[in-house]
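note to self: dont lose this again. the chain is below, predicted strucutre after it. 363 aa total, dont forget to put it in the shared folder this time
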Amino acid sequence: MYWQKIDRLESIPSPALLVDPQKISANIDQMILTAGKNFKERLRPHLKTHKMSRVTQLQIDKGINKFKAATISEAKMAAKLEAKDILLAYQPVGPNIQKLGNLIKNFPESSFATIVDNINSAQAIASKIGNVSNPVRLFIDINCGMNRTGIPFNERLNQLHEWIDKESGITLAGLHVYDGHLHQPVLEIRKNAVMEIDNSIKNFLRIKQVPEVIVGGSPTFGLWAKLTEWNLSPGTVMLWDAGYARSFPDLDFSIASCLLTRVISRPEKNLICVDLGHKSVAAENPIHDRVFFPELNEYQIMGQSEEHLMIKTSNSDKYTPGHLLLGFPKHICPTVALHDHAYIISDNMASTETWAVNAIKRI
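---
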């Protein structure tokens, strides 16, 4: 699961984000294989995991030209690469409505869409950037159990559907159904949860028609690919991470990114400190479950601050200041967002070449 020894790491300053383009390319190929022969129509990968033009271009080169973005910056990155279809899958409010309008105006070669889950937001978009000759495409965001955003399958959904359908300056593009709460390690349990959502969507489509349905995060998109003909929006599969690799052995993706860190101190017996603080690896998970160090074998993470990570290990004598370690984040997406570039690994050899994380900003 984890990377083997990487040569020539000494020239790379730490902490650093590392990516392996060969592994990324293989993950894209696996994503395409999972989506099937109609992958060009079905795949709408999420940009929020990698936020890199070079990774986006790899996908475009393989025939993928529809994308999903969480931020204006990610959507703009894809537009600069002349991506044909870009969904801002984050309901715009306040000034971000006009920023979306600016993208539509400034990048006419790309078709943009966004999501809404209530009539007020749809009205705001229609009044501020609606265009009768080029209507703003709106996907209705469905709450299928995650309880973060979206509207459930009920009468309010019918009302929103009807309102968008009648309003000028906007047009109904479809349903956006993100099932990010489905993380069941047991495949059969995860499949049953997907089928329950599938039934709800099909019941709705018996009474209402929509042009497109987008389903599935990374843990479930393979199930959706087999179960339906709908469109798919995995994201983490591009880089994969220790958390998903551990939880979903049924998914055939490789970890394509990790962190380089160095021991900077041995403050006392059996304790080392490395330069991997909150500002280098996502701190959303419990401290023992944020990053993994295969080389250390038995160890315990004792504490973390902005620039430091303290590790208890009985083998501390082996790890003098300057010693290199590879750390594998549990969650790669928010970890990438802490770095403005990634160093390239090729054939198990480090390079000083970097790829910019150029959609790191939100707007």
